[in-house]
Amino acid sequence: INELISQFYFVFFHSTGCRGIWDNISCWHHAEVGDVVVNTCPDSLKNLFGRDGNISRNCTANGWSDAYPSVKSVCYSESKPGKVSGMLVFYTVVKTLYTLGHSLSLIALITGSTILCLFRKLHCTRNYIHLNLFFSFILRAIAVLIKDAILFSHNENIQCHEQPSLVGCKASLVIFNYFIMANFFWLLVEGLYLHTLLMVIFSKNRHFVVYLFIGWGFPTIFVIAWIICRIYLEDTGCWERNDSAVNWRVINWPIMASVLINFILFISIIRILVQKLRCPDVGGNDQSQYRRLAKSTLLLIPLFGVNYVVFVYMSEENENETFKHIKIFFDLGLGSFQGLVVAILYCFCNSEVQSELKRKWRSVCLKRYIGRDYRLHSSSISRNGADNVAQFHRNSRAQSFLQTETTLV
């Protein structure tokens, strides 16, 4: 089907010359017979080997000529085969790891969201915020998996005008950036809510509307600004590259700001917890207090996204290769399991959730027991009724026989 579509596109729009093709290395746009098209080495090979050169192709009456000089001679470096194979293994491991992490997170988050929605006793502002955070993790995982499916699809018949370059691919990047930002801002909302809860005695539910705007509204504003910048400053490819610093900043600076604010809230909350634990009214020895503080701190780290503070302010252009790999491993590989950890800590390990699940399970077991007991009781009554009727008939026949005998005598 793709081949037929590409042939129709070429015949309808470009009746002469060479049609645009994607050779799994570079995109060769439509050219007229006699034209020479020059492309630079793909960015992926530049990053791997550090070499920059030009590759050319001629458009002839018989179609495209072979690329010259060869890609291997211009863009490949014989001195770094071990490095390249190691990097390929590293990126393969990271991709497998974050695919597994997002898949497990999806299962846990969908299950946790279902539980929070089904039980009415769990409906409160705190769990509403947890629910929105769960949704943001779910949408983030789906966006990552869809983006990979679109960007890394290998189809030799796809033409350059269809190759991840226009509406479908750009839309996937827009959705991806929106869900990533929404996830970070809902982590910020969790921090704001908990900090407000500790600082203000009476926290009213009207704040939830403000939280909704922060979690879903702010990312919408920044993503719209990013789309406008893309259209007017760098409307190239699938919008996956950020050659313009403005495009990178519109998305990443708000995320960096949310991470910084959340980290400040995290430190403030830990300070408040320390003060409360040192209060004379709080019982327990020093060891138990420090244990409670350590437990609270560990529980807050995934909820606040404190792990992002370590690497979020390292720009990819300035960091060295080792730190870049560490950042990729933690942010993409281990970070994909954050949704799973949050679902476990704030749903499955929550005492209220466990209490509701146990109550529901006891209710189901009781209904099954009552139903089974009722069926057994009904069956027993039926059998006893049949036995009584049979006994009544036997007694009636015996009585009739005795009356007959008496009459005869």
TrEMBL record:
The chain crosses the membrane at residues 97-119, 131-153, 173-196, 208-233, 253-273, 293-314, 326-349. One of its GO terms (cellular component) is plasma membrane. Keywords: Cell membrane, Disulfide bond, G-protein coupled receptor, Glycoprotein, Membrane, Receptor, Signal, Transducer, Transmembrane, Transmembrane helix. It is a multi-pass membrane protein. One of its GO terms (molecular function) is G protein-coupled peptide receptor activity. GO terms for biological process: adenylate cyclase-modulating G protein-coupled receptor signaling pathway; cell surface receptor signaling pathway. Pfam families: 7tm_2, HRM. It comes from the Eukaryota. It is found in: Cell membrane. Residues 18-79, 94-350 form the G-protein coupled receptors family 2 profile domain. SMART domains: HormR. PANTHER family: PDF RECEPTOR-LIKE PROTEIN-RELATED, VASOACTIVE INTESTINAL POLYPEPTIDE RECEPTOR 2. Belongs to the G-protein coupled receptor 2 family. This is Vasoactive intestinal peptide receptor 2. The lineage of its organism: Eukaryota, Metazoa, Chordata, Craniata, Vertebrata.
